[in-house]
Design brief:
By secondary structure, the chain is of the alpha/beta class. It has helices spanning 40-48, 69-75, 91-101, 108-117, 133-141, 163-178, and strands at 2-11, 14-24, 29-33, 55-60, 63-64, 76-79, 151-155, 182-186, 197-200. It binds adenosine-5'-triphosphate (ATP). Residues 2-201 form the ABC transporter domain. This is Cytochrome c biogenesis heme-transporting ATPase CcmA.
Length: 201
């Protein structure tokens, strides 16, 4: 269970949100919505511990995440913006490197299999800078296949995806939720999942 209680964040003089509370239980997902600049990325970064809130708390399994950073990190897969994919590395190297930084080993065969599932068979050895925006997004999303994590926090995961990849990600999310996972995601696009809750900023 993820619980967010009375969260407040501002940037400079500008309050983005305050008194924000919600929770997410096994099998549930939440859609974070709001206009450009409303604070969706800021909220997701705050939930995962990459930004500090002005007020409020984030709890995982009943305990503040700041008191159990390692456990929370192990339970979490956070996919932020595109820049998390390194242009100078190949997609295979990207997956192996991000997994190593994340504290688990992924061999080349597993990385290739994840890329193949994401529709990128054959692109694994090209430097990522040669891939299209949608292909880069698929490289990033392939990480979801490489490590089991109870909580997926995804910032605009559908951005730049074509219809087939949107469908693939929808199915991935459905399977994750059906197996007791949770997902908190921002998206300007409709999300191809049965209605979850909404966090409107
Ligand atoms: N480190 C920072 N310093 C100053 N302002 C910031 C910082 N990070 C974010 N902001 C500002 O906070 C506001 C919210 O940004 P954020 O990226 O959270 O919005 P968003 O809802 O994700 O937007 P979009 O839909 O365009 O992705 C924006 O006005 C942004 O310029």
């Amino acid at each position: 269970m993820l619980s967010v209680t009375d969260l407040a964040c501002s940037r400079g003089e500008r309050p983005l949100f305050k008194h924000l509370s919600f929770s997410l239980a096994a099998g549930q997902w939440l859609h974070v919505t709001g206009d450009n600049g409303a604070g969706k990325t800021t909220l997701l970064r705050t939930v995962v511990g990459l930004a500090a809130p002005d007020d409020g708390s984030v709890q995982w399994q009943g305990r503040p995440t700041q008191d159990q950073r390692q456990d929370f990190r192990r339970a979490l897969c956070y996919l932020g913006h595109q820049a998390a994919v390194k242009d100078e590395l190949t997609p295979v190297e990207n997956l192996m490197t991000s997994a190593a930084l994340d504290g688990h080993a992924v061999d080349e065969a597993k990385a290739r299999a994840a890329l193949k599932a994401a529709g990128l068979a054959g692109s694994g050895r090209l430097p990522t800078r040669f891939l299209s925006a949608g292909q880069k997004r698929r490289v990033l999303l392939s990480r979801l296949l490489l490590r089991p994590a109870a909580l997926w926090v995804l910032d605009e995961p559908f951005a730049a995806l074509d219809a087939a990849a949107t469908d693939w990600l929808g199915q991935l999310l459905s399977r994750h939720l059906a197996s007791g996972g949770m997902a908190l995601l921002s998206s300007h696009q409709p999300v191809p999942l049965p209605q979850g809750g909404t966090v409107a900023l």
